[in-house]
Amino acid sequence: MNEFQINNPADCMAYLLIFVSGSDGELSGHEGTATMKILTEFINHFEIDVDKDGAVDSKDAVACFTRTLNLYESLPEKEAAMLMINSADTIKKNVDKDNLPIIIKNLRALSAVDQTVSNSEKEVVDIIEEIFMMSDN
Predict the structure, then answer these.
(1) Is 88 helix (H, G, I), strand (E, B) or coil?
(2) pLDDT tens-digit series, residues 89-133
(3) Residues 131, 85: contact at Cβ < 8 Å?
(4) H-run or E-run covering 16
């Protein structure tokens, strides 16, 4: 089992991106490239120094993507799905409400980057959107 634990919004965003991309059974090269672009924008926007080197830069996205992909690939299906739900909840709690629709838009665009949106990709994004829209009360 992978020792890495998701512990910040960047890790959670990377996990959501990877989970959506992989939900159709494969993570294509186009999806990988789009995932890195979206993740880099997220990390830069929220100024998250993932690798704790004092700078927010492209190395943060690479480190975050690599370790999160390794975790995703090591998890049984049920655990992977639970971590997706927990990651969506963490994003919801740590990101301004106004940014949540932008994240959903990016996830939907990511699922279409390989010219095909599978039912599983659509369903996963719909679940994430439901989590984002649920009241915390």
Answers:
(1) helix
(2) 999 999 999 999 999 999 999 999 988 888 999 999 999 999 999
(3) yes
(4) helix 9-22
